[in-house]
Amino acid sequence: MMYRANDKPIIDELREQGWEDHIIEKYLDYKRKRETTVRRGRTAYKDSTQSKVYASESKYRRKYGNGTRFKSIEECEKYVKRVTKSKLWKELANSKHISVSKNKCRRWAGRAWGSHIDLAPSGYNQYTILHELAHCSGNMHHDISFRRDLVRLISRFVGREQAKYLKQCFLKDGLKMSLKQSVKTPEQWLASYNKMAIMRKNR
After folding, report:
1. CB 76: neighbour CB atoms within 10 A?
2. How high is the pLDDT of residue 106?
3. Gyration radius of the chain over CA positions
4. Where are the domains of the chain?
5. CATH 3.90.1150 fits 50-172, yes or no
6. Which residues have a Cβ under 8 Å from the Cβ of 113 and sit 6 or more positions away?
7. What is the pLDDT of residue 158?
8. How many CB atoms lie within 10 A of CB 201?
């Protein structure tokens, strides 16, 4: 059986309890995947919630708009600096420096990757910038950790009422805002595994 060195104590314990190796492997596979999910704050490897997030944001924008409109890329840069100097940004991204550049593309308002944001003129506004900063804080996706960071940024720099409504929009569209941090014990996992095996057998 192939396994990580730090899994050996668990393997030895489960073997002593009479677990077969193929069942131990299934538990270890579940454990690794679950730990990765908790660490990354996302429920899927693909950005499968993107369209739902955009739909929720559209509802928010119909009620609250995009916030302050900036006249130039320079004003956008000043706003980004204001946000990234905050205590919240230090908490979210360890005060990571973010650069900003102008892009004339009409297909999107803003794009982010790593420590950089591209903004089209249509994205010279608070909401677009905060959306992209939520990506730059370590969430290059639209999953739970992205939504959580975005709501916190909206609360701090736009308003609590607006943040509460955005969170409600996400939840109403079936988008989770929290992730259980627990990993099942071998006994808990085995009970679930056996239950599913019985259900599949009785179909």
Report:
1. 24
2. 82
3. 22
4. 50-172
5. no
6. 135, 140
7. 98
8. 7
Q: What angle do CA 139, 129, 60 make, to 5 degrees?
A: 90
Rounded Cα gap, residues 80 and 159, in angstroms? 17
Sheet holding 116-119, edge to edge: 99-102, 116-119, 110-113
CB neighbour class for 148 (10 Å; exposed up to 12, middle 13-18, buried from 19):
buried
- Of the given ranges (40-44, 82-86, 178-182), which has the lowest mean pLDDT? 40-44
Three-state DSSP at 153 gives: helix
Residue 96 to residue 139: CA distance in whole angstroms: 13
Q: Which candidate, 29, 23, 22, places its Cα nearest to that of 7? A: 29
- What is the rounded distance in angstroms from the CA atom of residue 197 to the CA atom of residue 199? 5
pLDDT, tens digit, for every residue of 37-53? 677 667 766 788 999 99
For Cα atoms 20, 23, 26, give the angle at the middle one, nearest 5 degrees: 150
Q: What is the value of pTM for the model shown?
A: 0.76
Mean residue pLDDT across the chain: 92
DSSP helix/strand/coil, 125: strand
Q: Which of 160, 170, 110, 171 is nearest to 135 (CA)?
A: 110
Q: What is the dihedral of CA 88, 93, 98, 102, to 10 degrees?
A: -80
